[in-house]
Structure formats: structure tokens, C-alpha cells
Specification:
The structure holds two protein chains of two kinds. Chain A has twelve helices and one strand; from the N terminus they run E-H-H-H-H-H-H-H-H-H-H-H-H. By secondary structure, chain A is mainly α. In chain A, helix 1 packs across helix 12, helix 7 packs across helix 9 and helix 11 packs antiparallel against helix 12. Chain B folds into two domains: 52 residues, no CATH class; 207 residues, Orthogonal Bundle (MetI-like fold), CATH 1.10.3720.10. Classes of the chains: A mainly alpha, B mainly alpha.
Chain lengths: 312, 276
């Protein structure tokens, strides 16, 4: 069985073979360029990169490249920066996604009501999403910089900090900077997807509930939330993986510092490859991250199956 | 009645807070870019300087490498947008109109490319591109970005094709056109808004990309705007006015394309998310 056009229209028997061969091959012609491109540029380097994890590959050391088994992984187990980066990844991902989600949900609920000037407000509050991420990082780094930015002075005036120094230079609190920037940039994403889901809920459900005497909160609890939940769940899951992989903001704002205190696993991969030029070690970290993400996806799928079973 | 009034007061207050949060960082960027150097430190955290000037912009435009970086970024992003949109519309068409052996595998491969950490490709990519002479070259970046963006662009284009009735090309084929002819002359023109939106998304993504550009194109001649701005930061970390003026310039094309794709945001943000 080869390819057949979707419409299932009966081919005339006469010129069967030649025509059928061409139309069987046709979808492959359309799909081939993209397929070849992602194979050559993404999947082959992915496999090559996994093999680097087992070799001593330093860019500036031409004598390297030997197979060294699991040495890198042993080194990783004893690497305090790597251990901190695991914890940082959880904090960074959890805090960014949770805040983006909650604030995005509230914004979507606000925008779901008709009011004068709504379209303009919508365009303006979604604007941060259009800002290139490197600029998001730089902009917020400048806002946190006491020389040109107002934030340290305001935080100090509110007695939230002891001095008007740069938050990004404080090893205990520096990760807050990239998280705030990520939330600022990511709220529109959640707001837009949630708003679309909200608008697909039929209005007569609310009207019926109102006739039955349900208040606004009751309507939200028994109509909006249950109907929104599936879309929101998928969005949050995908976003979690994406944010965990996202290193730009940390690289731009703190470069993993001060003293590697803000490295996440993803940013540690980048700094190992780019700053230390240690491709083998970077690939070993990347392999661990890939395994962790696979575990996360598996856990989610199992959870989902368990929940489906409980409901039947 | 009173509760209603109270509700709307809270509603508008919250909206105002969101607006403030969304716009303040952009306002500050523009404000510092317009503050002359001699006022920058004395009036550091004033909301508006006592005198605004365009001197940083004129310096950045005439005495720095930024016009070159801007040009490089423009070439890379436009070429990526054009090629990725073209290839992805073909692939999206195949996904929309045909059932074929290996289709599920193809979709699965494309979904995988959206899930794994791209940053892990940085090391192997560098080693594979050096012998091909594609490091420090705009062509190299275009190829890499096209590959990164085409799975997402394919899903997006597929959603646009799905919205066009197949009777259209069936009618053309009955009239003697080949399927490819019908695709080029009837379907593609009908999806022009979709093509533009896809190109807009890809352009924005290529314009923003930093980490691969940093690793692959380190020479000033081939630097894109993000790389140029970041190396500017580490080289002359004192001239905030000029950096922010450059930042404002980097913002312009992105905002332009944001306006173009605003109508399609929902579709773009959910493309690929619900597949498979």
C-alpha cells in the first residue's frame, strides 16, 4: 500500500499504473525538503552530540577526542555547580511557569469582558511577547542596575532590600532577576492561549447557570475551570519543557553568575560549550537534561493515564 | 448596583496595573536612550529627563558597527523567513491533503525537534559546520534557522490549508491541471495571509535568536544584531545611552512584524501543541 490522495476519488482504470505511481510518490516530494533539513541539521547533530558525551572533546585540544566511557558522568556526579543547577532549574522553571500561568489567567479573564478600549489594551499588554528575548534580558538587567535603573532604589525605599545594590550581583537572590524577566515576557503567551480557550466556551452555559441562580464565582468554579482545564494542562506541560530548556535570559542577564549561582542545566550546557569550549562535558550535561525531560514526560503520561482510569 | 460599580473599579485598576507592568520596561528603554550623557547620572531615576536628545541614536547609526549588524540580521531573518515558509508550505500541504506511509513518523520527528533542548546542538553543530565553511557565514545561520523553524511553520501552514476546501483543487484537476499546478496557482494564493503570518513568526524567531549566533558567528563581520549588542555590552559597559538606543533599533522590526501577525497569534501559539 502506498500513498493515495485523501479524497478517495475512484481513479479511471485505463492509465492506472503510471499515474498511480506518480501520485503515490507525490506527498514525499512535498515533504522531502523539510524532512531532509531537520534530519541533517537537527537529528544527526543530536545523535553526534550524544556521542560526544562519551569522548574527551576540548575544542582547543586537537589531541583529544578519545572514547572515555562514563568519565564525564562521574565528574558530573561530583560537580557542585551541576547539583546547584539542578535545583536552580526546578526553581526557575517552577516559579516562571507558575507566575506566568496565574497572571496570564487573570489577564485573560479581565480581557474576556467587553469594555471600551479593550482592543487597544489587548495590543499593549501583549506587546512584551514581541520583544526579542535577548533584549528582554538586557532591558531587565538595566532596570536592575542601580546606575541607570530605578528598581534597586524602589526596592530599597520599600525596605525590601538592605541597600540599593544590583540584585543580579547577589548570589542568593540573582535568580529572581531572570525569573521576573521571564514572567514579564511570558504572561502574554498564557493570556492569549487562555483567552482563546475562554472564548470557545458557549455563552448559553453561563446564561443557564445565571437563571439557576449561580453567582459569578460559582459559574467560574463549575463552568469555566472544568472546561478550561484540558487546554490549560497541555499548555502548562509543553511550556514547562520549553522554559526548562530556555537559557537565553540567564545567559544574557547573569551569564550563570555570580560564581555560577544562577546556572540552570540549560545555561550550564551553554557556558560549558561556549566559555570553556569543553564540548564533551557540555554534551554529557545535555544528555542528563534530555533524560530528565524524558522522565518528566513519562511521569506526566502515567499520571494522565491514572486519572483517566479513575474517571471510568 | 454598588457591587457592579465596585467590580468595574477593581477591573480597571487591575488592567491599569497590567498595562503599567507591560509598558514600563519599554518606556524606560526609550527614556534612557533619549537622555543625554551629562544628565544620565545626575537624573538617573527621574521619570523623564529635563532635556531629551537623539544624540545616542545618531552616534549609533553613524559611528558604530550597528548598521552592519542590522544589515546582517535583516539578511538572515528575511532569507530564513522566505525559505522556511516556502519549504514548510509544501510539507504542510502534504500533511493536510495526503495520507501516506510514514506520515505519523514524520509528524513524530517534527514534534521531537520541538521538545528537546536545542542548546545541546551547539557543540556538535559547531564541529560539523567548521569543515563546511559555514561558521562565521550568514548562509550557515540561514540554514540552521530554517531547520529550527520549519517544523513549527509546517504545523502552522497545515492549519491554514486545512481551512481551505479540497473541492477547489479537485475542480482544477478535473479541468486538467496537475495537483502541483493547482497547489501553486490556486491554493497558495488563497493562503497568502497565512503565508505572511508564517513568514512573520519565522522572521521574529530568527531576529531574536542569540545562542547559536553567538557560538557560530563570532566575527564582527558576520555578527547578527543580538551578538553585536551583547559584545557591545561587554566591551563598553559604560555607555548605557548608546546601548539602549541600539536596543530601541532592535525593537523596531520585531514590533513591526508583531503588528502583522497579531491576528494570527492564537493559531501561531497553538500550532503543533495539539497535534499527535
Amino acid at each position: 500500500m502506498g500513498a493515495y490522495p485523501d479524497e478517495g476519488q475512484a481513479e479511471p482504470e485505463v492509465n492506472a499504473r503510471g499515474r498511480r505511481l506518480v501520485s503515490a510518490a507525490e506527498p514525499y516530494f512535498y515533504a522531502a525538503p523539510v524532512l531532509l533539513l531537520i534530519l541533517a541539521v537537527m537529528l544527526v547533530p543530536l545523535a553526534v552530540g550524544l556521542s560526544y558525551a562519551f569522548r574527551d572533546l576540548l575544542l582547543l585540544d586537537p589531541s583529544g577526542g578519545h572514547f572515555i566511557g562514563f568519565d564525564h558522568f562521574q565528574e558530573l556526579a561530583d560537580d557542585p555547580i551541576f547539583r546547584d543547577s539542578l535545583l536552580n532549574t526546578v526553581v526557575w522553571t517552577g516559579a516562571s511557569v507558575a507566575l506566568q500561568f496565574v497572571l496570564g489567567l487573570i489577564l485573560a479573564l479581565l480581557l474576556n469582558r467587553e469594555f471600551p478600549g479593550r482592543r487597544l489594551v489587548q495590543a499593549l499588554v501583549f506587546l512584551p511577547w514581541a520583544v526579542p528575548t535577548f533584549l528582554v534580558g538586557l532591558d531587565w538587567a538595566w532596570l536592575f542596575n542601580p546606575v541607570v535603573g530605578p528598581l534597586p532604589h524602589w526596592l530599597f525605599a520599600l525596605h525590601l532590600t538592605h541597600d540599593a545594590n544590583n540584585l543580579l550581583a547577589d548570589p542568593h537572590w540573582a535568580l529572581v532577576g531572570p525569573i521576573v524577566a521571564a514572567v514579564w515576557w511570558g504572561i502574554p503567551f498564557f493570556a492569549i492561549t487562555t483567552l482563546a480557550a475562554l472564548q470557545s466556551i458557549p455563552q448559553d452555559l453561563y446564561e443557564a447557570a445565571a437563571i439557576d441562580g449561580a453567582g459569578v464565582l460559582e459559574q467560574f468554579r463549575s463552568i469555566t475551570l472544568p472546561l478550561l482545564a484540558p487546554t490549560l494542562a497541555i499548555t502548562i506541560l509543553l511550556r514547562t519543557i520549553w522554559v526548562a530548556n530556555f537559557a537565553d535570559l540567564i545567559v544574557v542577564m547573569t551569564n550563570g553568575g555570580p560564581a555560577d549561582s544562577t546556572q540552570t542545566v540549560a545555561s550550564y550546557i551553554f557556558t560549558s560549550a561556549f566559555r570553556r569550549l569543553d564540548f564533551g562535558y557540555a554534551s554529557a550535561i545535555a544528555t542528563v537534561l534530555l533524560l530528565l525531560l524524558l522522565l518528566y514526560a513519562l511521569a506526566i503520561l502515567t499520571l494522565r493515564r491514572a486519572m483517566l482510569l479513575r474517571h471510568t | 448596583m454598588q457591587r457592579r460599580v465596585l467590580y468595574w473599579i477593581i477591573h480597571y485598576a487591575l488592567i491599569a496595573l497590567y498595562l503599567l507592568f507591560a509598558l514600563f520596561p519599554l518606556f524606560w528603554l526609550v527614556k534612557v536612550a533619549l537622555t543625554p550623557n551629562e544628565l544620565l547620572y545626575s537624573e538617573g531615576i527621574r521619570l523623564w529627563p529635563s532635556r531629551a536628545s537623539l544624540e545616542h541614536f545618531s552616534f549609533v547609526l553613524t559611528h558604530s558597527d550597528f548598521p552592519l549588524f542590522f544589515r546582517n540580521s535583516l539578511i538572515v531573518s528575511s532569507a530564513t523567513a522566505a525559505v522556511a515558509t516556502l519549504l514548510s508550505s509544501a510539507c504542510g500541504y502534504a500533511l493536510s491533503r495526503f495520507h501516506f506511509r510514514g506520515k505519523t513518523l514524520l509528524v513524530a520527528l517534527m514534534l521531537i525537534t520541538q521538545m528537546f533542548p536545542l542548546v545541546m546542538l551547539i557543540a556538535p553543530m559547531f564541529r560539523l559546520l567548521v569543515p563546511l565553511g559555514l561558521v562565521n557565514s550568514l548562509t550557515g545561520l540561514i540554514i540552521v534557522y530554517t531547520a529550527f523553524n520549519s517544523p513549527f511553520a509546517t504545523f502552522l501552514m497545515q492549519s491554514f490549508f486545512d481551512a481551505i476546501p479540497r473541492e477547489l483543487e479537485e475542480a482544477a484537476m478535473i479541468d486538467g491541471a496537475t495537483r502541483f499546478g493547482a497547489f501553486c496557482r490556486i491554493i497558495l494564493p488563497l493562503t497568502l495571509p497565512g503565508l505572511a503570518a508564517t513568514a512573520g513568526f519565522v522572521f521574529t524567531a530568527a531576529w531574536s535568536e542569540l545562542l547559536f549566533a553567538l557560538m557560530l558567528n563570532s566575527s564582527a563581520q558576520a555578527s547578527t544584531f543580538p551578538v553585536g549588542l551583547l559584545s557591545f555590552v561587554s566591551k563598553f559597559s559604560v555607555d548605557f545611552g548608546q546601548m539602549m538606543a541600539a536596543g530601541v533599533l532592535a525593537l523596531l522590526p520585531a514590533c513591526l512584524f508583531f503588528l502583522l501577525i497579531q491576528r494570527y497569534l492564537v493559531r501561531g501559539l497553538t500550532a503543533g501543541a495539539v497535534k499527535g
